[in-house]
Each structure stands twice: as C-alpha cells, then as structure tokens.
Amino acid sequence: MASTRFFATAVVAVMLPLAAVAETATSEPAQTPETPAAATPIAPATPVAPAPPVAPAPDAAAALAAPISSEAAIAAAQVFCDTHLPGTLAAENATMELLTPSLRAAMDDATKKNNAWEAAHPGEKPPLGDGVPFQSYPDSPEKCVAGPALADNTEVDIEYQFDDPLANWTDRVKLEAVDGKLLVDDVFYGVNGFDESLRSALESVGQDVDIEE
After folding, report:
1. Contact, 187 vs 173, CB < 8 A?
2. What is the DSSP secondary structure assignment for residue 210, as one 8-state letter?
3. Which of 21, 100, 134, 184 is the most exposed place for a label (fewest CB within 10 A)?
4. Which residues pair with residue 160 across a beta bridge?
5. CATH number of 63-203
C-alpha cells in the first residue's frame, strides 16, 4: 500500500513540472517570422526633352531685301514730291532727309563744286542757282501725284500738274530700302525720256572747275 502511494506521489511530482512547461509554452504567442518589406521599384528616369532650338534673330539685310509693296513705294514717292514741291530752302533741307546716303554724298560733292564755280565766275548764275534739280523744270506746279509703281516697285512715276494739263510732265523716282525706310536714290527726268537724272545733273556741276581738297 505504501509503495502504491509512493508511486502515485512520484508520478504527480513528475507531471507538475511538465504541466508548468506546457502552460508557459501555451501562454507565449508564437513568433511569426517577419516578412521582409517588398522593395519599392525605382521608376526609370524620365528623359528630359532637349530644348527647342532658338530661332536666329532676323537678318537686317534679309529684312531689307523683302519685296517692296506698290502701296509703300507710291507713298514714299508722294512724300518726296510733297516735301520738295514748295521749292524753298526749308523744303530743300527737309527733302535731304528723304535721300539715300549715297545720293546725299553726291549732293554734298556737287554743292562744293557749285560754290567753287560761283567763286570762279563772279556775277554769273551758278549751276545750282535754281536750287537742287529735284524735278525736270524749276517751275512751280500746282501739285504732284505719285503712281504707278514700276520695276518691282523700286521706281514710281510722279506727275507734276498745272491748271493747264498741257503743261504737265512726269518724272520718275528710284527708291532704295535703307534701314527699313524707302528713300530716294535718284530722279529720272521724263522730259528727255528718263535718259537724264538728278545724279547725272549733279555729276555735271562745275566740271570746268578744279576743287582744292
């Protein structure tokens, strides 16, 4: 009887520690292995579009080479004839601003020759005694009318009109674009079939006089 109790006591003594271990194991939650975070994919770099090419600044020479409209040509010729028509010194000076640099240079040279001629021929009427010959005759027309435009709008006819239409005549101006402006580069005299011009008249001034530089 005593051995049976001893056996039972021994069994209980063995079972108690096992039960405690089992309880401890049950009370602790199972450790779930951590799932490594998925790596965020790196988006490919967006290619940078190349900057559009910068348009070159318009070439001034190309701009001046643009075709001249007939309206612009006729308007420039009308300004010329209206400006010089009064025939006064003030009108002549104002007209100088409407001439190309080349024609103005020819004008300056002719003026020097005219002054030299006048000094060499005192008392006589100098070649430019009636002023700059901007028209065929030194007469005073009632008005002048520009048009039509000719030669790709680089030349324009100008009719000088009087009360008597039989006295009318037509000259022709040659235009040139300079720094964006239409300027007069020559005047062809219609009285001689446009064979003579303002430039040829200026070149003939004081041909018999030597000018000291």
Report:
1. yes
2. -
3. 21
4. 144, 169
5. 3.10.450
Structural domain boundaries in the chain: 63-203
At 203, which amino acid appears? E
Task: Tell me if 152 sits within 8 A of 99, measured CB to CB.
Answer: no
Q: Position 129: which residue type?
A: G
Q: Is beta strand 143-150 parallel, antiparallel or unpaired with respect to 181-188?
A: unpaired
Cis peptide before 126 (omega within 30 of 0): no
Residue 169 φ then ψ, to 5°: -145, 165
CB 98 within 8 A of CB 83: yes
Beta-carbon contacts of residue 185 (< 8 Å; ≥ 6 apart): 99, 100, 102, 103, 174, 175, 176
Kind and range of the H or E run holding 161? strand 155-161
> Are 74 and 156 within 8 A, CB to CB?
yes
Residue with tokens 């998925």: 38
Q: Helix axis angle, 89-96 relative to 70-84, nearest 10°?
A: 150
Question: Each residue's pLDDT tens digit in the chain (213 positions)?
Answer: 444 444 444 443 444 444 444 444 444 445 555 555 555 555 555 555 565 555 555 554 454 467 899 999 999 999 999 999 999 999 999 999 999 999 999 999 999 999 999 999 999 999 999 889 999 999 999 999 999 999 999 999 999 999 999 999 999 999 999 999 999 999 999 988 899 999 999 999 977 655 554
Single pTM value for the model: 0.67
